[in-house]
Design goal:
- This protein has 150 residues and is mainly alpha-helical.
- The protein has one domain.
- Helices cover 45% and strands 7% of the residues.
- The chain contains 6 helices and 3 strands.
- It has a 3-stranded antiparallel β-sheet with strand order 2-1-3, with helices on one face.
- The radius of gyration is 16 Å and the shape is globular.
- The protein starts with 12 loop residues before the first helix and ends with a helix.
Amino acid sequence: MQVAFGKHAGKSVELLMFKEPGYVHWLLQQSPSGALLVVQRHAHSLMKKFDAKPLHRQCHGHNCSALATRATVYGNSLAPYWWCDNCDPYEAGANSGKLQGVRTYSEALTHVEFYCGGRKSDYVALVKYLAQAKGLPTRVGEQQANAFFT
């Protein structure tokens, strides 16, 4: 689906999810009406598909060979640590109370907004870390973005 308004008119929502997640975050915070409502609904459906994809990273737990099911980041950091549901990052030595969970697309957006000052490049970086852990290739164009969501 293509956006039909604003500075990203003609771009697909699928590609914007990876290339402009800060814009997607802004879109989702606007009052829904008309064409914006259609784009918001589509973005929400893409977020559900994103969140449903499994991670393909090994858990960082000590002697754990399980695949990760979640990620954590420190404060204003963007580099995630991967964990399975059985491993506790605090038992592995993480500083108590300093980790933020980023299991979903929405949690990644919220982390950047509140802990990283909403920097555009940080939205892109954190969403990209999660998406690549879910199988997105390093280079992303329309074809790769669409394939990720199908």
